[in-house]
Amino acid sequence: MLPVVLNVVYAVLLVAISPWLAYRRLAQRKPVAGLWDKLTGRIVRRHPERPCVWFHAVSVGEVLQLQSLVAEFAAAHPEYEVLITTTTGTGFDVARQRFPQHTIAYWPFDFSWAVTQALTSVSPALVVLVELELWPNFLLAARRLHVPVVMVNGRIGAKSHRGYRRLKWLWRRVLPGLTACGVQNERYADRLIDLGVPREQIAVTGNIKYDRVQSDRRNVRTEELRRAFGLGGGEVIFIAGSTQEPEEQYALDTWERLRAEFPALRLVLVPRHKERFDDVAQIVRARGLPLLRRSESSAVPQPSALGPQSVLLLDTLGELAACWGLADIAFVGGSLTNRGGQNMLEPAGYGAAVLFGPNTWNFQEIVEQLLVRDAAIVVRDAAELCETVRRLLGDPNERQRRGDEARLFVLTQQGATARTLQLLESALTSRSAPRRAA
Question: Could you tell me the pLDDT band of residue 158, with boundaries at 50, 70 and 90?
Fold first, then answer.
């Protein structure tokens, strides 16, 4: 009965937002990525003759988190086909780039027929959900079909917890179907227990984001970006990454106000969404500033050939992690808007002086740990961003000290991938005999 009720609720919501979807499709030319596959649960495996483990990552950030986990799992279990699903189009594109050897598909909508079709056609030995991807019909169908489901790198912030608690009656029926939950810390464990996950199914494994964080600024991909942008060695690089409107404007204002005082200062903009690449380029050109786009940098410029007046725009997918390795000062976007912040571990791992706005509830624990170590700075508005960058430019010792503390914090937190792999091994071992018999 519950799946039918959920189907009705989803259908009503879909009808309600259909005018907006039509507007996006016709006026903005932004169709829903993989719409037919999501509605029908269509997933085509490359190697249906092999057992399969299904990893699900919502979008780009979660896809990138999977890199070390999937690589180590595939190396330990070459007999398994690895399926990776995403929800967003950008996540799908990055997954195809990063995992060309594995099967990539779209996650089905949570209609009972779609999730049942997906699970039946894939017939996974195990489903691995990254962070808090909990969909009631999918979990109910997995339990009905005896498919083990494991959450990894689980987290649930205070705001999300309050929202989930409003439907506590639902989650108490659904969440016990999870085979195991690997969570980042005890706080998240307690919140999931409150929602209905049995305590014995939860393990605190840490945050796998730390394990994939690069700390060597001389890595191949960062050096490639340095050459593509024509950077030599004497510049001071200010990167505003994972930005949303109007954060690029704030970064441009800061750079334009400070570049006369600090001639070596260079600015790199990295919008969060690919749909805004052209818009941000237009914003830069409207100010009369020269612009170099990464997508147009096929010919390698000589260091500083474009002059210190050029704004650099990283308008390609999957390169932000390497680009942070160029940063002396890093502003992490989505934090002066209502987005809840973006991943600040990557610039921290490289030892950049890390800045972000006050709206970082998506990364609350990481923010708390960085701030208590004096390894990051909160800037509350555009004016404070400018003044903080000015102070750091004028005090290289403070810049270095904060960067060193941030890098040390990241390095001391690593090891979660190994603990997560043990969790997956246990889930596979406990279910392998009955599944093979079946």
Answer: confident
Backbone phi, psi, residue 150, to 5°:
-120, 130
| Residues in contact with 279: Cβ distance below 8 Å, sequence separation at least 6, in sequence order | 245, 271
The token pair that represents 36 in the structure block: 């037919």
Other C-beta atoms within 10 Å of 233: how many? 7
Are the C-beta atoms of residues 326 and 268 closer than 8 Å to each other?
Answer: yes
Single-letter residue type at 47: H
* Residues belonging to the active site: 62
Tokens of 406: 């941030």
Listed in sequence order, the DSSP H helices in 166-297 are 168-174, 186-195, 220-228, 247-258, 277-286
List all residues 6 or more positions away from 368 whose beta carbon is below 8 Å from its beta carbon: none
Spatial distance between the Cα atoms of 22 and 93, rounded to a whole number of angstroms: 23
Residues of the chain with pLDDT > 90, as a percent, come to: 82
Is the entire prediction scored with pTM above 0.70?
yes
pLDDT confidence bin for 303, thresholds 50/70/90: very low
178 and 202 fall within a common domain: yes
- What whole-number distance in Å separates Cα of residue 39 and Cα of residue 111? 8
* CATH number of the CATH domain containing 284: 3.40.50.2000
- Note down the domain range covering 302: 220-412
CATH code of the domain containing 157: 3.40.50.11720
State residue 106's pLDDT score. Answer: 97
Confidence check: pLDDT of 233 > 90 = no
CB atoms within 10 A of CB 18: 10
**Cα–Cα distance measured from residue 345 to residue 370, given in angstroms and rounded to the nearest whole number:** 9
